[in-house]
Amino acid sequence: MSGRTVTIAEVARHAGVAVSTVSYVLSGKRTISADTRRRVLDSINALGYHPHAGARALASKRANVIALVLPLRAGMHVPVLMRFASAVVTAARGYDHDVLLLTADEGTDGIRRVAASALVDAFVLMDVELDDRRVPLLRDLAEPSVLIGFPASPAGLTCVDLDFAAAGERCVAHLAERGHTQIALLGAPAVVYERGTGFARRTREGFLAALTVHHVTGVALPCEETFDEVYETVRTLLTDRPGLSGLVVHNEAAVGHVLSALRQLGKRVPHDVAVVAICPDDVAERASPPLTSVLIPAEEVGREAVRLVMDKLAGKPAPQATLLPPHLALRAST
Amino acid sequence: MSGRTVTIAEVARHAGVAVSTVSYVLSGKRTISADTRRRVLDSINALGYHPHAGARALASKRANVIALVLPLRAGMHVPVLMRFASAVVTAARGYDHDVLLLTADEGTDGIRRVAASALVDAFVLMDVELDDRRVPLLRDLAEPSVLIGFPASPAGLTCVDLDFAAAGERCVAHLAERGHTQIALLGAPAVVYERGTGFARRTREGFLAALTVHHVTGVALPCEETFDEVYETVRTLLTDRPGLSGLVVHNEAAVGHVLSALRQLGKRVPHDVAVVAICPDDVAERASPPLTSVLIPAEEVGREAVRLVMDKLAGKPAPQATLLPPHLALRAST
DNA sequence: AGGGGGTGTCGAAGCGCTTCGATGACCGGC
DNA sequence: GCCGGTCATCGAAGCGCTTCGACACCCCCT
Q: What residues 135-154 of chain B have any CB closer than 8 A to a CB of chain A?
C-alpha cells in the first residue's frame, strides 16, 4: 500500500509485453488479442497500477480534468450551488474526468491560467451574469465551455438552464387552473434584478407574459430576505389587493418568512392564499404546509452541462441553448 | 490570444538563455543575475507563457494541486460547506495550488485513485465521521492530509475544527450571565447523533458540562427540520418547563422554524425567551430578530486547513489537533 | 603570477506516458 | 509455394519541464 508509484514499464515487464502494448490495452486505440489483454489487465491489478496523470496529460494533450467555476458571491442560493457541483463531479467521473474547482473571484485570469497551463480541457461555469466579463474570453478560448445560465448574448456559446420563463408561466397556469384571478410574484431581492441576473428576470417575464394568456391579474415584486421586510411586503400586498389569493415565491431564502407572515396575518394556506414556490425540493418539502413547487433541477442541469461539454470535447456540435422544462410538484399549499 | 501553447524553450530562445535558466528564474532554486532574470521575465510576459502543468508535475513530482473531499450527503450543513470550499480554494491559490473536487461517494477508491495517479499532492477532507472508513487509508498514505472535523481516533492525523464543546459552553455562559436559569439546547436531527457526527455530540457535551459550572438547569434535545416538528418540540418544551427562558439552537435549517414557532406561541424574543444560535453569520443576521450567535468560522477553518496541509507538504510537523476558539456575536435575540 | 572559491549559466538526462511507423506471423488465393 | 493483406506487437521518438553536474568567469588572497 502506498509504496512508490508503479509505472507502465513495470506493468509491461510483469506482463512480458512492450510498454506500448499496455498503453493500447488501456486506451483501446489498437486491437490487442484477448490473451494479451488478459495478461496485461492481470498485471495491472496485481501491481495496483494507476497511470500518472501528468505524464498522460503531457503525452496525450488531454488532462482529463474539467474546470468548474463557481460564483461564491452572496445572494446566489448556496445549497443549489452545492447540488450542481455535486452533480457535475459525479457526471464528470462517469466520463473518466475529474473536476478542478475555481472560484469566480479569480475572474478571467484564473480561466486563462488553467487553460494555458493545460490543467483542464474544458470549462463549466455557473451563475453567469447577463453581461459577464468572462464571456468574450470563453468565446475565443480553444478549450470548450458550457455555461449554466444565460448571458445577454449567448452567440457562439453553449448554455444550459432551467427554463425559468416557462417556470413562471407554469406557476401562473397552475394558479389560474385552481381558479385564482389575482396573484403576485415575490421574486429575488431588488439588487439581484439590478445586477441583471438572468434567471430572476426570466421568471418575471414568464410570469408577466402568462398573466394575459390565463386571464388573471397580477404583479411582480422584488422581495428582500429578512422576516420584517417580507412581512411588510406581504402585508402591503394583501391590503392593497383584497382579492389576491395566489402567491408565487421565487426566493428560496424568503419562502419560510412568507409562510410565517401569512400565518401571522391570519391567512391560512392554501384556504385563504395559495402559495407555489420555485425552489429546491427539500425546501418545499420542509415548509409547513409543504409547498407546491417548481423544483430547480440541479442534478439534471449539472449532468446536462457535463454531457454537453464532453460532446464538445469529442468534437460533436452542441446546441447553443438547452432549456430544461420545469416540473411542477403538487403539494399541500395550493 | 489562445494561440498554440508557448513552451519554455520558446521563452528561452526569445530571451537568449538556456531552458534551465528560465526554469531557475521561475523556481528561484538557483541564483540568477538581476539582468538575466529581467530579460527572462520580460520574455515570459511578451509571449504569455504559462508552464504546462502536466510536464511540471511529471518532472518535479509535484502537481501543485490539492484534493478537497466534500461530503455532499443529504442533511449536512450545506451552506457552510460552500463557504469552506470557497475558503479552501482561495487559500490554496495563495500557495500557488489549485483544488480538485472529490465527492465522498467515491469513497476510499477516489482518494486512492487521485493519489496514485499523482493528480494531487495532498488532501483536505470535510465532515469526517467519528468512525470513518477513509481514516485508516489516510493514515498510511504517502500524501499528507488534513481533516476538518474529528474522527474517534485522530492519532497520526491532523484535524482542524471549531471548538464545538467550547461553543456549547460559551452559549450556556452567555445565557447564565443574562440571568437565565433554565435553558435548553435544540440540536441536530436525531439521526445525526446516531451517525456519530462529532460536532453535534461535542456541542451537546460542552453544553451539558457547562450547566453545573454555571449553576443553571437545562436539557439537550435533538431537533428535526420541518416546521411542524420544530413547533411541536418547542411547544412541548415550554409547556413542560414553565421556567425555561433561554434556548440554544445548533441547527441551521431549524433556526427559522424555531423563531416562527416562538412567534406563533406568543413568545417574544428576547423578552420571553432568549435565543442564541450556533450557525453561520448570514443566517443569524437574516433572522428576525437577528440572533446572538456563535458563528461557524468557515473561512478561518478552511484557511487553517490549507495552511496545515501546506506545512506538511513542506515537511514541517503539524499538530494533531487544532481547535479554533468560538466567537460570540451579540445581536438582538438575547 | 597562480590558486581557490564563489557566481551565474549551460547542456543533457530523465520523469511516465502516447503514438507512429515498422516488423513478424499467419492466412487464403492463385 | 509465393504474394498480398490482416492482425498483433514492438521500439523509439517525442511531449515540456526540472535538476544535476560541469564549466566559465571574476575576484581576492598569497
A: 140-142
